[in-house]
Amino acid sequence: MRVLIIGSGGREHALGWKIAQSAQLSQLYFAPGNPGCAHLGKCVDLPDLTSTLSFCQEQKIDLVVVGPEKPLVQGWCDHLRAAGIACFGPSKLAAQLEGSKAFAKKVMAETKIPTAKYQRFDAFDQACAYVKNHEFPLVVKADGLASGKGVTICQNEGEAVMALKEAMVDNRFGESGKVVVIEEFLVGREASFHVICDGKRGLALVAAQDHKALHDGNHGPNTGGMGTFAPSPFVTPEMEQVILEQIADPVFQYMAQQGSPFQGVLFIGLMLTWHGPKVLEFNVRFGDPETQVMMPLIESDLLPILYQSAQGQFEPDLDLKIADQRACVCVVCTAEGYPENPRSGDVIEPLPQNVEDGIVFHAGTQTNGEGKLVTAGGRVLGATAWRSDLDRARNAAYRLVEKVHFRGKYFRKDIGGHELNS
Prior knowledge:
Layout: E1 2-7, H1 10-19, E2 27-32, E3 42-43, H2 49-59, E4 63-66, H3 69-73, H4 76-82, E5 87-88, H5 92-99, H6 101-111, E6 118-121, H7 124-132, E7 138-142, E8 151-154, H8 157-168, E9 180-184, E10 189-198, E11 202-204, E12 209-210, E13 213-215, E14 219-222, E15 227-230, H9 237-257, E16 263-273, E17 276-283, H10 290-294, H11 302-311, E18 327-334, E19 358-362, E20 365-367, E21 373-375, E22 379-387, H12 390-401, H13 417-420
Parallel strand pairs: 1-2, 1-4, 2-3, 4-5
Antiparallel strand pairs: 6-9, 7-8, 7-9, 10-11, 10-16, 12-15, 13-14, 15-18, 16-17, 18-22, 19-22, 20-21
Helix pairs in contact: 5-6, 7-8
């Protein structure tokens, strides 16, 4: 099969790394990819949908895998399918589960999916009046896409008003912040749960846990993700069944009833509360950096699973096998100044190669005019390792971190650490 992966981050490098292991793969392309992806396939410049469609037709691409959320929300999969090209990713309508938090809340309300209580606002004054009489903490969310940075946990009225002003008045998130959702603050443990669907049936991946805050102990501003581990010890087989039956399946049934069957991966951001799992958010693509810890734990050939999902029909006996007795940890190394103003252009010293049960996934990297690898984004690299248990995987991942060198490198030192002592 000839495969094109859309995107340039750590998620796309990890997906390509897994797909490259398939016996069914004949050619792998990335658009635009990154220097890590370039070791697995060919990186091509396809700046828009029109050029992507032309490339797929000229190169006889069998499957397009869309990594980032923006092209999904823009409806790329609809156009690719209309041109007869198999595309892993949901329709434009189904992608609104991530593209609009208000839409996602509407779906959850209609399907009785457990989630936080909320209110939607498109007027700054009305939102301020609401928080004035609200118990704290509470959560302010930009309705649209905000690169994982549109969520603010507010401890008092002043912080809430500031978050509302940044989103609705100062346009920090552009059009995405014109509408906000204000939610109750849920208490519990977070988990990331992914389900691949063919429009009817879902296949669950291993549950992971992201670390969003910049600093150790979950302090500091939200980021796109400072590290992950899998499996989550708190998502038991019994809870996984509850998540599938009470959350994933109702979403898939709802989208099918709307005439837009969900073909792709549903990423369910969960809070595991005393009253059971509740939905924090939906994403309609693989998480980043969750993908980096899920891929090494998948024993099945992923390519036919993605292809059958894109075609809208899993084979009856299709299964997704996850490795038993194995854990994976990814520690993200970020550039100086991340998340607000990351530096770029710092030279990265040669990375470790052929690591046993480990890899350094590229995210924000590029090759400069002198042929040297340099930083080119906030989250630069993901040091990833898998072992027989979480403790060993964590230690191995941090040994990899020690071998990553560039000016201003920053990383959290507690990825997976709290869970070891719980």
